[in-house]
Amino acid sequence: MIRDITLGQYYDADSIIHRLDPRVKLAFTLIYIASLYVGKSVYCYLFAAAFLCGLIALSRVPVHFMLRGLKSIVVILVISALFNIFVIDGQVLVRFWIFRITLEGLKTAGLMVVRLILLIVGSSVMTLTTTPNDLTDGLERSLGFLKVIHVPIHEISMMMSIALRFIPILVEEVNKIMKAQMARGADFDGGGLIKKAKAMVPMLIPLFVSSFRRAADLALAMEARCYHGGEGRTKMYPLKYKKEDFLAYLVLFVYLGCMIALGRLT
Amino acid sequence: MSIALEHVSYIYDPDQKVKKYAVRDVSLEIKKGEFVSIIGHTGSGKSTLIQFMNGLLKPTEGRVLFEGQDVFEKGFSLKGLRQKVGISFQYPDNQLFESTILKDVMFGPKNLGQSREEAETNARAALKVMAVPEASYDKSPFELSGGQKRRVAIAGILAMNPDYLILDEPTAGLDPEGRDEILELIRTLNWSQGIAVILVSHSMEDVAEYAKRILVMNDGQIIMDDTPREIFKAYRDLETIGLSAPQVTYIAHALAEKGFLPYDTNVMTVEEAKKEILKVLKK
After folding, report:
1. 3-class SS of residue A44
2. Are residues A176 and B91, on separate chains, in Cβ contact within 8 Å?
3. pTM (2 decimals)?
4. Do both A216 and A245 map to the same domain?
5. A180 lies within 8 A of chain B by CB
6. ipTM of this model?
7. Which of A6, A135, B140, B192 is most deeply packed, by most CB within 10 A?
8. B187-198 burial, b if ≥16 CB within 10 A, otherwise e?
9. Predicted local confidence at residue A148, as pLDDT
């Protein structure tokens, strides 16, 4: 059934990483990504990789889930690696026709690929262990300071939550619409690109119409319950830091310190 | 000439250890020209069952036969099947999309490969059958009222000239007048054109009035398959699965208990009740 479609890519498991406050995980991800740019030596990357492996082990998410995110960036990885290999000047190793491969190029390309892989897998740890709702909650709280400069942070996060909530509903709607049109002889698979695009019209129009109707209904229901934005609004499950969360921050800063030190030393 | 289901079952998620059946071991045959109704409370498997009949859903087990041929066999044209067996789903909003009503009804015939002229002739005929006023053919289907939308949606199926017409709750959310209109039109289709009608409904009154045969579904199985009179005779059994007989049946039974009506009355419609009561009064 399409009903139990996975939202985002959350993987349900019971682990210390899953239980961490989403704000901690957001900070982790940001600092982890930043730390990858601190040092350029092999040791830095080794250390970062080892740290990441530790996190993955703690998260109890199967490794192939973590690596799935890489599939989509294989092309980018290959292209950027090739560019680095052929473009960077330095000690020439091989030369043919107008191309030459340099030692520096190879080095840079290798490090860049490793960095990108770590970056993607690193952020996968967060998206796999945090439900989309927790994530928007965390974002709302962490970015709360932006309210001072009139960024409507509560509204943005409310919109994100609603959008996420609507995904399974719309999936079901698409399913129903497709069946109704197939009963009228519509063909959704087969045919060339243009034919396929044209075949989408009878599905997309009813989908848009119903989305607008649902949006209007939801707005009405929210107003009927006196929703008036984030001002003075309390939460049913407010985010609260626990002992583990402070511990996690500590680990994070120790890691960052190590990375900076490694970057300086080598 | 029939649609037949042979021991069909549908399991929601076959990988799960505890199998959840939407439909469990159902066998039935619907012949051309019949007026059959399927009743059952929400989640009893009615919607799943009707989707087998035009190949929108493939049963996990069992076979679906259209005129003796297995519809999920290689080489069987599902499009051809969907032309012969039309389903009009509950929400017309899920299928209306064109800029005008006429164009929308032409969608089905055009998908079957008909030329513009042919499709338009068929669409006009179908709209006429469903009593959609000709003046509104160029209107947008989104401007229509609920009852009219429903009629245009059914016309969209009829324009393909099906032999079987499956209607999923065609009267849900309509006012009494709109409801009677649609059901009358469907009945006319059934006897004047010989189109078999399979009506999924929650309204026992409608079913008693229009259907010639009723299938009662509970928990994915067909537990009764008989004429309305026989089915509603067993109204106590219907109650145990969350259904009921038409209200007038209860009134007749209450009157019989008081000795006003003879005990063997199996009144199903208001019209019949009127006759019975008058019979007693005139004595």
Report:
1. helix
2. yes
3. 0.77
4. no
5. yes
6. 0.88
7. A135
8. bebbeeeebbbb
9. 84
